[in-house]
């Protein structure tokens, strides 16, 4: 009988690129493994990814000097919220969640507690689109 656990671990790793549950703070982390290059043009999106909190759908793209994350309604945000970490080496600029100012935490993350949500982040520099955050777990 073949070892199915290897295949299932590989599939789980691919799914974790788009969203994974972080038990330490009871949150759902979004797009932490998505390569920065995927944000260009139409960007990247997922539809109805099964999570412990319900089906998750979002689109993430870079538009000139900003990054836009649109999250559809569906999942019930966990206690720690949905987490979006800034994907570039430069510092993020002003962030809006559903048109309201939002603050980055010390780890460079935004927490989202209500869905649907549109997150818009102004980039400080043009170099952010090309730079990769060295200290994060982001794929290159």
Structure write-up:
- With 140 residues, the protein is mainly β.
- It has one helix and ten strands.
- A six-stranded antiparallel beta sheet has the order 3-4-5-10-7-8, with no helix packed on it.
- It is globular.
- Residues 127-140 have low confidence and may be disordered.
- Read across the widest sheet, the strand sequence of neighbours is 3-4-5-10-7-8
Task: Report the biggest beta sheet as strand number plus sense, adding barrel if it closes.
Answer: 6 strands, antiparallel
The number of distinct helices, counting runs of at least 4 residues, comes to 1
Number of self-contained structural domains: 1
> What is the top-level CATH class?
Mainly Beta
The CATH topology is given as: Maltose phosphorylase, domain 3
- Hey, roughly how much beta strand do the residues contain? 35-45%
* Average of the residue pLDDT scores: 83
For the secondary structure, the number of strands is: 10
> Could you spell the SSE succession in H and E letters?
HEEEEEEEEEE
Helix and strand composition category: mainly beta
In brief:
With 140 residues, this protein is mostly beta strands.
Task: List the SSEs and their pairings.
Layout: H1 4-16, E1 19-22, E2 27-30, E3 44-49, E4 56-63, E5 66-71, E6 82-85, E7 92-97, E8 100-102, E9 109-112, E10 117-123
